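for the recovery benchmark. tokens below, seq after
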């Protein structure tokens, strides 16, 4: 998808997320969308096709594009997630994401404590020790979190958490560095209960 098409998707999606077009409503005809968003007809069509792929609208030939119920949207898609994170119900959505991340990351930590290789455990110890010395602690925390998810040995789980990070950067609280250090050391020590607790604390700090 080109930058032009991405911009078109973002603009139309933003108008839906803001409530301008409610679930079940038909979007204006293509000619009206062309005028409203100052886009070519081809760009509008590509944008609608992209939104249909993401479950946001359903396009019916001869009738137009109808907004789908939010529960049918592919909310983990980076474009949809980013729009929801900026929308009028962003607090509720970000709360859902936070709880989802807590569930996934705490279980990834348990798996990592059991499955991490000797090399991964050694790297986690080194990075945990150097965590506060880094000029960018936020970047260090994110790197450590990803090492833990990779060490879980579950690629779909790691990919889902990585996708969340790419679409919605997690907020880190004042206790994040300490929680992340405890997480890394618990995984390195092979302590699943301590790893789960640290992962939960890390998400609670966000």
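predicted aa per position
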């Amino acid at each position: 998808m080109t930058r032009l098409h991405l911009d078109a998707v973002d603009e139309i999606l933003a108008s839906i997320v803001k409530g301008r077009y409610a679930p079940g409503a038909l979007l204006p005809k293509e000619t009206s969308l062309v005028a409203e968003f100052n886009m070519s007809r081809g760009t509008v069509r590509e944008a609608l096709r992209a939104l249909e792929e993401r479950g946001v609208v359903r396009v019916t030939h001869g009738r137009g594009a109808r907004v789908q119920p939010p529960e049918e949207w592919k909310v983990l898609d980076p474009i949809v997630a980013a729009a929801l994170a900026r929308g009028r119900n962003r607090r509720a959505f970000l709360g859902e994401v936070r709880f989802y991340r807590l569930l996934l990351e705490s279980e990834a930590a348990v798996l990592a404590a059991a499955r991490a290789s000797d090399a991964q455990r050694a790297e986690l110890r080194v990075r945990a020790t150097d965590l506060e010395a880094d000029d960018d602690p936020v970047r260090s925390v994110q790197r450590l979190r990803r090492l833990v998810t990779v060490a879980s040995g579950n690629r779909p789980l790691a990919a889902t958490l990585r996708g969340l990070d790419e679409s919605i950067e997690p907020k880190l609280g004042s206790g994040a560095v300490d929680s992340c250090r405890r997480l890394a050391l618990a995984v390195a020590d092979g302590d699943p209960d301590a790893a789960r607790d640290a992962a939960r604390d890390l998400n609670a700090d966000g």
